Amino acid sequence: MKRQINNTLLELITGIIISAAVVEVLSILVAGFSWKFTSGLWIGAATAIGLAAHMYRSIDRALDMQPDDADKYMRRAYLIRTAVILLVAGAVTFLKLGYVMATFVGVFCLKFGAFLQPLTHRMLHGKDEAVLDETGEDDPPHTDS
Question: Residues 38-59: what's their mean pLDDT?
């Protein structure tokens, strides 16, 4: 069974990619091209996309739980995401895959993507078009990350 990606998640991922591309272009214009910065940035952006998908999945599951169980589950999911960020930063540092600060900038693109979500919503779905989710209900743009 093929699952469709949620529209809001797709818009968030698009915003992450756009913001990482803007950071890449600005870094090239300011400091010139660097493989280490580029690899660190895109490793961070890929991590941000994974974190966004995990966050969506965690929230979706928590909504089906009792409030106390959902609270514990979301705390555990948050710890998992934090551990992933630290593990990725450690891997980038110790394996010399890129600049670790560029990796953090890439992860921070998750926040930029959340701010860009209303814009990416209009880009992907048109200005006045209502987007229906899997249940057939409106899926309004969300700006929380």
Answer: 97
